[in-house]
Amino acid sequence: MENQVIELRDVLKKRRTKNIGPLSLAIPEGYVVALVGPNGSGKSTVLNMLIQAVLPDEGDIVWFGETYAEGLPLHIRKQIGFVPEQISMEERYLTADDAAAFRSQWYDTWDGYYFDELLSKFGVPRGVKLVKMSKGERRKYEIAAALAPRPKLLLLDEPSSGLDPFAWKLMISQLRECLKGGETTILLSTHIVDEVRRLADYIVLMHYGKVLGMVEKDSLLDNWKECWVTGDAELVQELPGVVSWKPEAAGALSFVTTACVEVERILQSAGIPILKTRGLELDEVLSLWIEGHTPAENGKMERRE
Amino acid sequence: MRIPIQINENSAEPLYHQIETQLRSLIISGQIEEGTLLPSIREFAGGLNCSVITVRRVYQDLENEGLLRTRQGTGTFVAGVGEQARAQFKHDAVFKALEAAVDTAQSVHCSEEELRSMFFKIVEKKYGGKGGEIGGESSD
């Protein structure tokens, strides 16, 4: 079994207008898990609960195998790097270097050379107070500061918001760099489809405070496709996971399925050629998923034969 | 080192299968030599924008087939491919392509006669009419 870095067990946070949860979720070590979902679905609340910036009303959160109801001890907290969505106020009158000096007191694994290198690569201005920086510059500082201690767990709340495309690419490559050793786990919330495509191993979809599922990204993309075949309505009814279908020219019809791997197997054994397939874009997949079409069973867990 | 693998997102074929098929043929055809160190799973996945789960599955499958071997702490290497396996692969690849061509002929109702005549015409053209005997390159 893989180690779970984080586990949420029936975690519930009561908000004035809505509840977040109950949530159950396990984040395996060494993977990138993308937290996606519409605004207000509870992604930031989840991330904030993972550093105890928000405390759950019910349920347990497990960090590296243990629960810490009395507060996260320093030896756990310093293994976590966090880029919050709301930028903290404490550091705003500090320059990047002064803020880094403060943070490095807490993280004994703080790598000053690495932090310097990141700041230069990102082009973050030195000697300027954080409050005077542009949104993107401030974001770059936050990312550099989260990466500098080389934490085991990175929690990134919409890390790319405000970044220009060059800085975005640099962030992607730096995150990949962190993952090389296989010991870093990343949980990031994002609205950027391309970010999920490039980074994620698993996708967790949240909607109205609930987790709709955790699915292997490639299995999702392998299974959610539009296919064209020659045939009639009867054929479509025989096929699994069909979301919708419509007639096309020349006696063909097209349909969208959430179980393309299975569909292909069935059609192949029936000798019916697939004329054309199109992989759905991730945003199409997510909106169908939110509408209530669930991913194929074989996509839910890691496939082990 | 990057491995030349092309993913088609619009194919009905699952990702791991596309990657596995292409990597297998690169190894068996000898385009990636024995002893070559493959990229780490995370690196390979990053280059293809796919998940590490997919790449791990490909590496495991090919390791089970004896085409790859993993040394703890060093990485995954290309294992030796026997002459027999290479010959088999060559045979299978051509056989499969011919079968697909025959399928195409059948789908447009081409007769057996027509198909045979077309086949021999192509062989004639490509091999310069040296007859059925197809020798390997003499300069080896």
UniProtKB/TrEMBL annotation, chain A:
<dbReference type="GO" id="GO:0016887">
    <property type="term" value="F:ATP hydrolysis activity"/>
</dbReference>
<dbReference type="GO" id="GO:0005524">
    <property type="term" value="F:ATP binding"/>
</dbReference>
<dbReference type="Pfam" id="PF00005">
    <property type="entry name" value="ABC_tran"/>
</dbReference>
<dbReference type="InterPro" id="IPR017871">
    <property type="entry name" value="ABC_transporter-like_CS"/>
</dbReference>
<keyword id="KW-0813">Transport</keyword>
<keyword id="KW-0547">Nucleotide-binding</keyword>
<dbReference type="InterPro" id="IPR003439">
    <property type="entry name" value="ABC_transporter-like_ATP-bd"/>
</dbReference>
<feature type="domain" description="ABC transporter">
    <location>
        <begin position="3"/>
        <end position="233"/>
    </location>
</feature>
<dbReference type="InterPro" id="IPR027417">
    <property type="entry name" value="P-loop_NTPase"/>
</dbReference>
<keyword id="KW-0067">ATP-binding</keyword>
<dbReference type="InterPro" id="IPR051782">
    <property type="entry name" value="ABC_Transporter_VariousFunc"/>
</dbReference>
<protein>
    <submittedName>
        <fullName>ABC transporter ATP-binding protein</fullName>
    </submittedName>
</protein>
<dbReference type="InterPro" id="IPR003593">
    <property type="entry name" value="AAA+_ATPase"/>
</dbReference>
Automatic annotation (TrEMBL), chain B:
<dbReference type="Pfam" id="PF00392">
    <property type="entry name" value="GntR"/>
</dbReference>
<protein>
    <submittedName>
        <fullName>GntR family transcriptional regulator</fullName>
    </submittedName>
</protein>
<keyword id="KW-0805">Transcription regulation</keyword>
<dbReference type="GO" id="GO:0003677">
    <property type="term" value="F:DNA binding"/>
</dbReference>
<keyword id="KW-0804">Transcription</keyword>
<dbReference type="InterPro" id="IPR036388">
    <property type="entry name" value="WH-like_DNA-bd_sf"/>
</dbReference>
<dbReference type="InterPro" id="IPR036390">
    <property type="entry name" value="WH_DNA-bd_sf"/>
</dbReference>
<feature type="domain" description="HTH gntR-type">
    <location>
        <begin position="13"/>
        <end position="81"/>
    </location>
</feature>
<keyword id="KW-0238">DNA-binding</keyword>
<dbReference type="GO" id="GO:0003700">
    <property type="term" value="F:DNA-binding transcription factor activity"/>
</dbReference>
<dbReference type="InterPro" id="IPR000524">
    <property type="entry name" value="Tscrpt_reg_HTH_GntR"/>
</dbReference>
